[in-house]
Amino acid sequence: MSAARLAPSILSSDFARLGAQVEEVLAAGVDYIHVDVMDGHFVPNITIGPLIVEAVRPLARQYGAVIDVHLMIEKPERFLDDFARAGADILTVHVEACPHLHRTVQAIREVGARPGVTLNPATPLIMLEEILPYVDLVLVMSVNPGFGGQSYIPTSTAKVRRLRAMLDAIHSTAELEVDGGIKPDNAAEIVAAGATVLVAGSAVFGGLSSISDNIAAFKRAL
Ligand code: DX5
Ligand code: ZN
Predict the structure, then answer these.
(1) 49 with 37: CB under 8 angstroms?
(2) What is the pTM of this model?
(3) Tens of pLDDT, residues 54-80
(4) What is the rounded CA–CA span in Å between residue 109 and residue 51?
(5) Which atom from ligand 1 is nearest to the alpha carbon of 143?
(6) What are 71's strand-pairing partners?
(7) Among 7, 75, 137, 214, which residue carries the largest CB count within 10 Å?
(8) Edge-to-edge strands of the sheet including 32-38?
(9) Beta partners for 101?
(10) Long-range contacts (CB closer than 8 Å, 24 or more residues apart) made by 185-193
(11) Is 179 an annotated catalytic residue?
(12) Ligand 1 atom with minimal separation from the 180 CA
């Protein structure tokens, strides 16, 4: 349980100070950087693209961290190569955005990244059943995608537990990541349900405490 890792979402960072803030989380011992890509179509918000991935790549490489890119976009296959070239190590796509999900997962491997799949809170886990053997990461959305700073949907923990059972049943070593509304006070429950990577945006970059104090609070909770 204590092997779970924290993946700070730079969506909640201060973009005017992006480099310094990314360095602060990396120096605090974090080994994932979560990048939330939104297109104003799949979700009602527009955020960032490959240029930002490219900008954080040197720091991520320097600290040996994984760049974990969450694509909340329609037709993600159009941009897989761009994100991989920019430095994405993991590319996660939504099942709702990919009618040919198996093909998209193969395409992610072909561009040299590790494939992840994710699903919205109201999408049932059965949608993942056929693709699980082919992926390196499964992401459970515990808020409706589109914005940082929303509240954790409480039924997500049971969903994580059921997904953990599905992964174990096929002896999968895929990471089980959870994203949305994660704070030090619910982190342990989510990890106990079977998560291995916890995304946190506002709880790392927001509030009055420093980034390193926020990360320390997560470490204590786990
Ligand atoms: C939501 C994003 C999340 C979000 C997490 O669409 O995928 O990664 O930034 O932010 P918090 O931790 O503030 O819920
Ligand atoms: Zn995300």
Answers:
(1) yes
(2) 0.98
(3) 999 999 999 999 999 999 999 999 999
(4) 21
(5) 1
(6) 37, 93
(7) 7
(8) 5-8, 197-200, 175-179, 137-141, 114-119, 90-94, 66-72, 32-38
(9) none
(10) 185/221, 186/152, 187/4, 187/218, 187/221, 187/222, 188/1, 188/221, 188/222, 189/157, 190/142, 190/156, 190/157, 190/160, 191/1, 191/4, 191/222, 192/1, 193/157, 193/158, 193/160, 193/161, 193/164
(11) yes
(12) 14
Percentages helix, strand, coil for the chain, rounded to the nearest 5?
Answer: 45, 20, 35
What is the rounded CA–CA span in Å between residue 201 and residue 45? 16
**5: which strand partners?**
197
Strand partners, 38: 72
User: Is residue 86 within 8 Å of residue 51, measured between CB atoms?
Assistant: yes
Any catalytic annotation for residue 136?
Answer: no
Angstrom distance (rounded) from CA 63 to CA 51: 20
CA-proximal residue: ligand 1, atom 6 (nearest): 145
What was the pLDDT predicted at 3? Answer: 76
Task: Check residue 1 and give its pLDDT.
Answer: 39
- For 168-206, what is each residue's pLDDT tens digit? 999 999 999 999 999 999 999 999 999 999 999 999 999
Q: CA 160, CA 153: separation in Å to the nearest integer?
A: 12
Residue 97 to residue 204: CA distance in whole angstroms? 28
The rounded distance, in Å, linking the Cα atoms of 8 and 116 is 17
